[in-house]
Amino acid sequence: MSTGAGVDVSPDHYIGGMRVPSAERFSDRSPIDGTLLAEVARGGQREVDLAVRSAAAAFPEWAALGAAGRAPYLHRLADLIDANVERLATVECLDMAMLERSLRARVIGRGARNYRSYADLAAGYEERVWESNGTRNRVIRMPPGPAAVITPWNAPFMLSTWKTAPALAAGCTVILKPAEWSPLSCSLLVDLAGEAGLPAGVFNVVQGIGEEAGAALVSHPGVRRVSFTGSPETGRLIGTAAAGNLAPFTAELGGKGPLIVFEDADVEAAAKKAAGQYDDAGQVCLAGTRLLVAESIRDDFLERFHRHTDAHVLGDPRADDTTVSPLIHPDHLARVEGFVERAREHGDRIVRGGRRAELGGLYYEPTRSEPRGNDSEVVQREVFGPVLTLQTFASEDEAVELANSTAYGLSAIVYTGSSERAERVGRSVRAGTVWVNTFLVRDLTAPFGGMGISGIGREGGDYALDFYSDLKTLQIVEGSTA
């Protein structure tokens, strides 16, 4: 089928190197204007069984290649991603409304870097070797089997590569289930995998609804690893299903990150970065949505923050001047609206925004609230929309206490001019990643994941490769023993 923008995308599953249709379909519409993009195959137990069997059949040969033998396939896939940035960006923008210029400039290219980085990291693995008790010991990574990967609707292409790259590099075969609200870029990705020469069955995609195809996949006894990104509520269900088969499970489950601005900070830089949290309509799990500002600089910060917020342009994400795109789906718009309406009822002050934008459709105004108390729902729960809260603090201890006062712990942002404070607060804030005087700067070898209800396990670098491996200790006594 064609997206209407000159890019052909198959709406069917990709199983065992072939396109496989389903009798049932679901509609995929663009968040930009509601245009029907595709009637996508609605998979279930039958398609999942077929995909897992295909992955299991392809596993022995793929695993036997070794990391060095798999690396050329992943490098070819990375090269093809780089050669198809325009097509991938066009489809991803239509399908989930991420800013097209961002997709072209950095997001799609990150997918290529994921495959190259993990291919090289796996091939360069140095086994731990030591002598003890008269034996020579080695730690060996062994591929465990098929891996199930469940990705979210925000940044689906990049997050799919982020998970499938270490799985494939480690020697797993993969069954990817994309989110039903943005399934098309993953369909393009697996076409590129086939073009790169990955053997049939190594990389499979099953389309469908989470409660149907996703549930069947994560509970399948043939799956030996499960990786998920999404909500804590769904994560609990998936973790329970994986535990039934004793399949190791990793999950990134969202966040409610603080953005802490101390009185010694570069206030202009902090305010600009705070206003930037509205990018992609706030549909970013790492966003610093809780603004925690020192009382002494509150007015100065807000004057600058409002100026940068006013500079945002809501509009078509294909336009170069747009900075805030629409929300992904009518159901999600209703969810965001519900949070804001309940905040009003709770007595929170909605200082800016708090309503649908005049553009209509799925656009929602950048919103800032001043909660009545720290127990406000918009402080304690992830909204996943363009809604920020502002609270002030009188001391460093109070700032850290507020930062750590939710059940989440994915990320945090700190602005301070003191290296000593950066070290103290960076160590004290409970989060998997803490950025100081910056945001979203990533090293692919660093561990990534959350604390609290923000997730289980770590992705990134050797941490991801270890997850997608069974670690074996081999002990050898040289020569014969009497």
Task: Please characterize this protein's 3D structure.
The protein folds into two domains: 13-253 and 450-473, Aldehyde Dehydrogenase, Chain A, domain 1 (3-Layer(aba) Sandwich); 257-436, Aldehyde Dehydrogenase, Chain A, domain 2 (3-Layer(aba) Sandwich). It is built from 15 helices and 20 strands. The protein has helices at residues 45-64, 66-83, 85-96, 100-123, 156-170, 184-195, 210-218, 232-244, 267-275, 298-310, 330-346, 377-380, 396-403, 419-428, 461-467; strands at residues 13-15, 18-20, 25-29, 36-41, 129-132, 135-142, 147-150, 174-177, 203-205, 225-229, 249-252, 257-261, 288-294, 349-352, 367-370, 387-393, 411-415, 433-436, 455-456, 470-476. The strands form five sheets. A seven-stranded mixed sheet has the order 14-15-16-13-12-17-18, with helices on both faces. A six-stranded mixed sheet has the order 9-8-7-10-11-19, with helices on both faces. Helix 8 (232-244) links the parallel strand 10 and strand 11.
Can you give me a brief rundown of this structure?
This protein is of the alpha/beta class and 482 residues long. It has helices spanning 45-64, 66-83, 85-96, 100-123, 156-170, 184-195, 210-218, 232-244, 267-275, 298-310, 330-346, 377-380, 396-403, 419-428, 461-467, and strands at 13-15, 18-20, 25-29, 36-41, 129-132, 135-142, 147-150, 174-177, 203-205, 225-229, 249-252, 257-261, 288-294, 349-352, 367-370, 387-393, 411-415, 433-436, 455-456, 470-476. Helix 3 (85-96) packs across helix 4 (100-123).
